[in-house]
């Protein structure tokens, strides 16, 4: 792909699905509003200028994040804004040495937060057993992710760049200690925010054809295969340009063949329990149900 593809094209859809991908499988778009156009042009940015952010950026991103839907309006998330270079440096190290965490002026750490609800329960004299259940943790992760993504959309609309830092989950306890997170909270994902370095040249990364992800009425796994095949042709030159020779399927296999051990995720379940999320009580209360239904 040529370097000119970093420039906005007439159709953001062409970049989203890659060269030629729409020739056989056109996608009809509703009117291309500013919001849709911005979303379709998303690309992760991994090179930043050291320029500071305007003071209004952080509260704007938080307002955007708080505008995301949240399950039952429970608002089971918080965000820690980190600008201190030493703290960013330590968090970059915990995230496997990702340099963009150091480069960019702001790291937002999105937190699944059951602590606030538990504090409300304690003040009310009512321990909130419901927060021990796995579902509350799932809700907190979903809430945090929706909030974070709203911040991404807002940041990009301001001409800023972002990159998520899932690698913070390699060290949940150390990240919690660094951020002073109380029990009942855990960092879900980091988000670097800054001014993109134009020399970075990040491009829109094509996605799977819609036929691989869109099912009408019922799910059809077999029907996806030709679409996944077609994606290989689109993404292979993209990866080659980035110096990555693997196919997308190869990358899926390589990443997931071993259950997380090499990435430090193996202990995530126990780390969550240690942080007071998905507590063992959840497993105890669900056990009798399984026994009753056993033959
Ligand atoms: C939950 C999550 C965690 C991620 N963690 C990292 C990360 O630790 N480091 C990184 O460079 N990119 C990270 N990314 C960015 C993805 O690699 C990127 O979104 C993906 O390759 C697609 O590229 P695009 O965002 O440019 O379309 C993460 C993205 C998500 C959604």
TrEMBL record:
<comment type="similarity">
    <text>Belongs to the flavin oxidoreductase frp family.</text>
</comment>
<dbReference type="InterPro" id="IPR016446">
    <property type="entry name" value="Flavin_OxRdtase_Frp"/>
</dbReference>
<keyword id="KW-0285">Flavoprotein</keyword>
<protein>
    <submittedName>
        <fullName>NADPH-dependent oxidoreductase</fullName>
    </submittedName>
</protein>
<feature type="domain" description="Nitroreductase">
    <location>
        <begin position="39"/>
        <end position="195"/>
    </location>
</feature>
<feature type="region of interest" description="Disordered">
    <location>
        <begin position="1"/>
        <end position="24"/>
    </location>
</feature>
<dbReference type="GO" id="GO:0016491">
    <property type="term" value="F:oxidoreductase activity"/>
</dbReference>
<keyword id="KW-0521">NADP</keyword>
<dbReference type="Pfam" id="PF00881">
    <property type="entry name" value="Nitroreductase"/>
</dbReference>
<keyword id="KW-0288">FMN</keyword>
<dbReference type="InterPro" id="IPR029479">
    <property type="entry name" value="Nitroreductase"/>
</dbReference>
<feature type="compositionally biased region" description="Low complexity">
    <location>
        <begin position="1"/>
        <end position="14"/>
    </location>
</feature>
<keyword id="KW-0560">Oxidoreductase</keyword>
<dbReference type="InterPro" id="IPR000415">
    <property type="entry name" value="Nitroreductase-like"/>
</dbReference>
